[in-house]
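Hi V.,

You were right to ask for the full record rather than a summary. Here it is.
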Amino acid sequence: MSDPFFQPVSGFDLPRFAGVPTFMRLPHVGLDDSRIGDVDIGLTGIPWDGGTTNRPGARHGPRQLRDLSTMIRACHPVSRVNPFELTNCADLGDVGPNPVSLDDTFDRVVAFYEKLHANRITPLSLGGDHFLSYPVLKGLVGTGNPVGMIHFDAHTDLMDSYFGDFKLTHGTPFRRAIEAGLLDPKRTVQIGIRGTAYDFEDIEWGEEQGVRFIRIEELMDRGVADVMEEARGIVGKKETYISFDIDFIDPAFAPGTGTPEIGGPDTLTAQRCVRLLDGVNIIGADVVEVSPPFDPSGATAWVGISIAFEILCVMARAVNSRKTQESG
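Predicted structure:
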């Protein structure tokens, strides 16, 4: 059982429209708080979109995701997992970005996640644009062994550069992470790839490294269960990162994103994909590219935070399993 301090506020005790909005109504614990060492899973906002190459706005994602997360209840309806009973979860606040410097923001994110790693906290990050996955991985993995990744996205994010020789954008994070030895390409699977392309250099480079691409057509033809069984087999039992770009989902269901692509899965299909991550040794995850200016209704943020709860449930089981093994 988790520490009662880390339980979310119930809608039976305080109306969902009242109180200070934290992620899933969890207690806020800062990095300098005396309780930081008790946190198992830390939910963190990264409000920054300086890596975006076209439609900005994802910097506003974490705030709207927090607001919509007041609708999240404690128990998963299918697995019946209560992640807040299995683990101590907390809202760790936001990584304070530098809105006029990509390099300084990169360093700030790395430093923040190095502290989480030092405190043995498993992070669930809410962005922000997809560039942020690179410094998050750098802070988590450092010079250790590269991790595997299951990546849900319409795009590979394996581009080499934009506008000449600019290497750090939301279209390049996983190429940089592979080059830096943070990701093991042979234990990396990307699911849902689709949309028009500038060329196929990113795909060809990824295939040369050993990345497994599962286009949206293959996902739909084979079915979720078969594809996710393969994905779990690719990453195996070793440490694995989960990255979920909201544009994995069809824009009919999640229009509030910077680079939408038609022909994606509906929200139930996306939920089923995430539920079948159960058993993966998850050491961190993110949900990125929610851009409120393109969906002021909050519908996309509701999809995003609902997917984050799905991830939290399988992550809590993974963290609890590691704790049980370590104590046993």
